[in-house]
Structures are given as structure tokens and as C-alpha cells.
């Protein structure tokens, strides 16, 4: 079990027995049965869980159990990779440090749906010119609400720029 060096938790005999019992039992066991097998009361377990050291040790158990089985997991992944599974090969190469994540990208965008003919025209023109359609519609709305400045042309709803 990994214990953080900043933490000075030393389990007593019963706590160590409970942690070892849980580690040996696996992930699908309930606490009442583990307490019974470790010969401790459920009340003691609940009291221990209120302490930082025991709680951290308990929360690290799933990771420790997985690490216990890691040689078998790696062997199974090697077998799958050799059988041609690209995903298994990628996992193994990542574990070996041969593949590194260079960049994580999060992309957020607002869906703009043109509601008028003018907005539809601006939206399509912006897409054809590889411009931001949302920005183009925003600019159209700014111009139609604030009015033209510096000789800007604003359409009158018919998409021509000419009076109706």
C-alpha cells in the first residue's frame, strides 16, 4: 500500500488487519462482511473512517488492488496488441512512455441559427469565405441596431441593400 510521506499514518493491528482483509477480498465485497472477516465491529470501522490517515489508506485500496494485478493486465494487453488490436498497442506504448499527449484541446462554440433572410445570407456568405458565421451575424445585428457608420451599407430586409 502506498502511503504519502507527508502523512504519518501507522495503522494499529486491527486497522492493518481490516485494510489487508479488504485488499485480499477484492472490489466487490461489502464493508459488513469485511468487518466480520477482520473481526472488528462496524462501529470501529466507522470511527476509523472519520480519521484522515485510515480514510486515505482505505481510499487508496482500489488503486493498490489494480497495481497488484498489473503484471497480468500488461500480459493480457501484450497478447491483444500482438493479435493486432491497435487500441491495446497504443495503451502499451503510452504506458512505456513512447506516446505522449502533446495537447488537450477543448472546443466550445455557440450554435447560431439565422432567423431572418439577411442573417441567412450573411451566415452562408461567411461560411463560403471561411469567416466566422456567428461573428458575421453579430456584426449584422450591430449594424442594423446601431445604424450604418462611415458609409457602411445595411440591407432593408430584402437582402439587396436597396430600399424596399
Concise account of the structure shown:
The protein is built from 9 helices and no strands.
Low-confidence residue ranges = none
Q: Given the helix and strand composition, which structural class is it?
A: mainly alpha
The portion of residues forming beta strands comes to: under 5%
Tell me, briefly, the overall form. elongated
Radius of gyration, CA atoms, in whole angstroms? 32 Å
How many domains, as an integer?
Answer: 3
The average pLDDT score comes to 77
Q: Order of SSEs, N→C?
A: HHHHHHHHH
DSSP summary: helix tally: 9
Report the count of strand segments: 0
Main sheet summary: none
Spatial gap, N to C terminus: 79 Å
Measured as a percent range, the helix fraction is 55-70%
Short key terms for the protein model shown above:
164 residues; mainly alpha; single chain; 9 helices; 57% helix; elongated; 3 domains
